[in-house]
Predict the 3D structure of the following.
Amino acid sequence: MTSNNDFLPPIQTDEFLPPISRWTTFGGIFILCVLGLAIPVAAVAKYKVTIKGQGVVRPSGELRIVQAATEGQIMQIYVKENQVVKTGDAIAIIDDSRLQTKKNQLQTNIQQAKLQIVQINAQIQIIDNQIRAEADKINGT
């Protein structure tokens, strides 16, 4: 009897693998190069990281209530939500037509009061002249 070794040729481990094509080799080299460059670039490059979490946000200073000196209808808003503003910055425009009317009335009242002052000073002048005339009459006679 003959053994099985005589009928079957010895096998190599490489015989069951298909041959590697040129494109597969270039693709593998390309992927290795890309990864070899991407890892150092990712270590050096700066990028923003966003993390979701729960927390309490408090202002750095004390809370302040923003309140207009006058009341009225808002005509235009100059700031956006969460925009930082400084002291003295205009936040909005309020319709001031009622204030303008009141201002005009007060200016008219001031002008009338000035005219009354002029009239009263003129009356004082006339009365002073009458007093002097009467005093001269009394002293002269």
Remarks:
- DSSP finds three helices and two strands in the chain.
- Helices lie at 4-7, 22-44, 97-140.
